[in-house]
Please model this.
Amino acid sequence: MISTFVNAWFDSHRAEVISWRRHIHRHPETSNNEVETTNFIARTLKEYGLQPQRFPETGLMVDIGPDTELGRLAFRADIDALPVTEVTGLEYTSENPGTMHACGHDVHTTIALGLACAMADYQREHSLELGLRIIFQPAEEVWVGGATDVIEWGALEGVNSIFAVHVEPKLRVGRIGVRAGAITSATDVVELEVKGPGGHTSRPHLSADVVYALGKVITELPALLSRRVDPRTGTVLVFGQVNSGYAPNAMPESGTLTGTMRTADIAIWRDMQNLFSELVDQVLAPVGVEHELTYHRGVPPVLNDDVSTALLASAAQAIDPQAVVQAPQSSGGEDFSWYLEHVPGSMARLGCWSGEGEQHDLHMGDLNVDERCIGVGVKLFGSVVEQFANVQE
Model:
């Protein structure tokens, strides 16, 4: 059985696999700069007899097993770090100042690397009738995500389904959160600039008040959206930055407003730019200001396929009948969604909290994952391979 082999392989290679994670964590590289990370992954794969295919810039993928009419089963890991200063004080803390694996991508990479090497050994000892592809993707943390480049470079050619995990520091290690449908949200950025002639605050009737205009958008637009969009879709507009003015008695000539627009409904996301522009026009029409709206479309929501999610849950239960929990829908963005625009698949939440002490959050300098989650992830992926192979028979 594939799952039994992978479980035994990890148990016998645990120290080696953990050392991979610590090396990657110690040497983080930001998006599109993952040169040494790519080199390390490639060297490790070659040591296990595999032939990785590098992408034009950074990142790589590797195929294991034969090409079949059914297509390959793919797993994706993201390899980039964040511009965050690490404050964990760990023995293997980041040696690159101001850069840290604060989103757990070192764990994701290690899990995928462990699966690849385990399956390489399985292929040598047994006959693997299923084709696998392990994708080590760069630049997940930048707009709009490196997945679009990886897909353009052919990573999904011949792929049947794709799976991934994301560490979850709010979930105890050993637990695996699954969810059919939207597990993350679409994430767009909006920028609004308003302009007027300016003037003195003692004579507002002779000018157009851009500060008042910005205030109207800040307060009225979220309310209008709640009446135009089904509230069950998790559609949320939040402004994070507003700038205007230079003196208490002077009406400024311009002001800017920026924020994020999020939704778990892909149909709403596809039409949101038009709706947003329409509502901004309506809100600002009575004020008399000129305005320019810039709408930056980001990533769609990760929409986990029902069949793939059921397979993922079954694979998790095969490891531990108590492992599976219902994952909440997140308002965060994740570029794994781009893969699911092309092939079915599913992403799971991988518990990485030790169960004791503070639950640190993602993208924070004090994030410290329980490394036992790496073994859970490798064994989960091995179980997915077995479940998928059984379905295809």
